[in-house]
Design brief:
This protein has about 260 residues and is α/β, with parallel strands linked by helices. About 40% of the residues lie in helices and about 20% in strands. The radius of gyration is 20 Å and the shape is globular. One of its GO terms (molecular function) is ATP binding.
Length: about 260
């Protein structure tokens, strides 16, 4: 699905991504972990077209997508969420979802005059699709709530819901668990697993919560200092001395802490 080859992203003399190569296989839920400053979010931003790479290539389904802008990648089915949710706070949860698909008939001034029936029909279809998404995510009771009033975890579910309003192929989730209580985190994990299993979504997940990563992800890729340090199952990663050193700097004696 996604292949990254010798990717570099430098900011002046700082090498945020420094020769990273990795593969995200179709149908997988791949975890991406590493200490703060490892280059994980920068890597996401380069893959998703938010940042231009200094050098290296990114491929999707064998096609070179290096440097393509986010809106082009969006239409190819590559979506990325952020650590902080980007909801339209004054709009309802349902309206936030209905805004996602592009090229809607109502966006044209001429259509507002001459194609009102088409606009109404499209809006009914979008509303029905949004309600289906909300039901899938078990937040249908929040459909008419202003998005700005949602909790952090509910906003993360709304972000996930946006990916369901288009034909997503691969979704990059950046710290989906940050600031989310354990109950809602479980709901988010369930939704990711169902989307993967029932709808064929491929995911790559940045997350610091190792319980969350162990529950969802195989394989797990570890970054440190802009490079790929290790790859394997969650169990293998938690037994890897180099990974433990990168996270804790204290070696094997703290292995149990990594799995705690």
């Amino acid at each position: 699905m996604i292949r990254v080859e010798d990717l570099h992203k430098h900011f002046g003399g700082f090498r945020a991504v420094d020769g990273a190569s990795l593969e995200i296989k179709t149908g997988s839920i791949t975890g991406l972990i590493g200490p703060n400053g490892a280059g994980k979010s920068t890597l996401f931003n380069v893959i998703a077209g938010v940042l231009e790479p200094t050098s290296g290539r990114v491929f999707m389904d064998g096609a070179d997508i290096t440097g393509l802008p986010p809106h082009t990648l969006f239409h190819r089915g590559l979506l990325r969420t952020f650590q902080l949710a980007h909801e339209f706070a004054s709009m309802t949860v349902r309206e936030n979802l209905m805004m996602v698909p592009g090229n809607q008939a109502g966006e044209s001034l001429l259509n507002t005059w001459f194609a009102r029936g088409r606009i109404r029909s499209e809006e009914r279809a979008l509303r029905a699709r949004a309600d289906e998404v909300l039901d899938f995510l078990t937040i249908d009771h929040l459909a008419d709530e202003r998005a700005g009033n949602l909790s952090g975890g509910q906003k993360k579910l709304l972000e996930l819901g946006r990916t369901m309003m288009v034909d997503a192929k691969v979704v990059f989730l950046d710290e989906v668990g940050a600031g989310v209580n354990r109950t809602l985190l479980g709901t988010i994990a369930d939704a990711i697993q169902r989307l993967n299993r029932e709808r064929g979504y491929t995911f790559c997940v940045i997350e610091h919560d190792m319980d969350f990563i162990a529950r969802l992800c195989d394989p797990v890729i570890v970054m440190a200092e802009g490079k790929v340090l290790a790859e394997g199952s969650a169990d293998q990663i938690m037994q890897n001395e180099a990974v433990i050193e990168a996270y804790l700097g204290t070696g094997l004696k703290n292995k149990e802490m990594l799995g705690a």
